[in-house]
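Input chain follows. Return structure tokens only.
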Amino acid sequence: MVFKEQPCINYYETSKKDIYIYDEKIENYGEKEKFIISNPKQTRYGDIYGWDKGLIKFDNNNPTKEDIVVIGESFDNTIIELISEHFNITYSIDVRHYKDENGNKFNITEFAKNNNVDKILLIGKIDFLIDKEHSFNN
């Protein structure tokens, strides 16, 4: 694949939080700061904002705030950590990858019940959200 233009980098400071891909703790999700400093001529969107994963968990360790599930596709990678600033736990679900990585199709009803989720946010094209192959509630 040939990249023809530099992606725009949206920079915002976020608080320190625990980040997990499934149950594996990671240092950070994407490396915006690295690319702002080095300003390479070409880079990839996923290097900056994080690669698509079926389940990412951002934990602010603040149980006084609500928990949220964000169901989206790669377009939410640019803002998911910013959204997570306003919640205790933010679960980011990309149903395109969830089943392959987890072994089970994602079911929003079960997930919300099992994780005591207070809010659900859908981000992305309506075609993706209602597509039978990626349906998330059956």
